[in-house]
Amino acid sequence: MVELKTDTSIEAMRVTGQVVGRALTAVREAADVGVSLLELDEVARGVLREAGATSPFLGYRPSFAPVPFPAVICASVNDAIVHGIPDGYRLRDGDLVSIDCGAQLGGWAGDSAISFIVGTPRPADVRLIETVERALAAGIEAAVVGNRIGDIAHAIGSVCRSAGYGVPDGFGGHGIGRRMHEDPGVPNEGRPGRGMRLRHGLVLAIEPMVTASGHDGYHAAPDGWTLRTNDGSRAAHAEHTVAITDDGPRILTAR
To answer: What Pfam families does UniProt report for this protein, alphabetically (predicted)?
Structure first.
């Protein structure tokens, strides 16, 4: 079931989204060579705690997961696409890191993700991140009243494919509101003019993912959560929670 949010609810979701944005900013600022992924998770926990927010990630257990998720961020490094569990791994010079974070505050959820490079950047990684950010921007630009879900999907996929990158099959964005995952699904590839029509009050988490090799294949790591590229190529991920309004798309997780 798709719930359209009132303007008051959208504003409340923006407050939650600001917490997510602050958490991601703090994590990015803390990320440096020698810092562990567990330490980054603690940084995000501190931001949520200070805001009086909780994490929709912590304890989350969808049907595929062997155990509840044990952290408040997903920390995916290099060939990890999404859902990386923070552990004692210490960041190295040149690592490509994707951080996904959510918050629950006042009954509303927010969800956002960023990718960045620790230390010395590789030009190929810079291009990968720039592309996933352009894909996110294109998806948001297509998120206007009167368009359809397929228009968002097509905009995202066109940017990723034209750059020669892979798009992991079966993963994409989602509706968001009282819960982190709501209807409708938002694929990262699709045909324009197809799918549900976008209306004022629909709120979506739009989240492109790209793999550097151009191949779409991935597999689950032994932890049952982390998804890694089959060929070991690097991946990047970006996401914003976006409200569709009569005045255009409104990013609720702006940083």
So the answer is: Peptidase_M24
Residue 100 known to bind ligand: yes
Place of tokens 């397929």: 150
Question: Block means of pLDDT (10 residues each) for the chain, length 255 residues?
Answer: 96 98 98 98 98 98 94 98 98 98 98 98 98 98 98 98 96 97 97 98 98 96 97 98 98 96
Nearest Cα to Cα of residue 131 among 221, 35, 47, 238:
238
Does the annotation place 181 within a ligand binding site? yes
Do the beta carbons of residue 4 and residue 201 sit within 8 Å? yes
Q: Where are the alpha helices (DSSP H) in 93-203?
A: 123-141, 149-162
CA 128/CA 52 separation, integer angstroms: 35
Task: Please tell me whether 83 is known to bind a ligand.
Answer: yes
> Residue 207 annotated as binding?
yes
Burial 177-213 (b: 16+ CB within 10 A, else e): beebbbebbbbbbbeeeebeebeebbbbbbbbbbbbb
Our CA angle for 48, 54, 56, nearest 5°, is 115
pTM: 0.97
Question: Would you say 247 is a known binding-site residue?
Answer: no
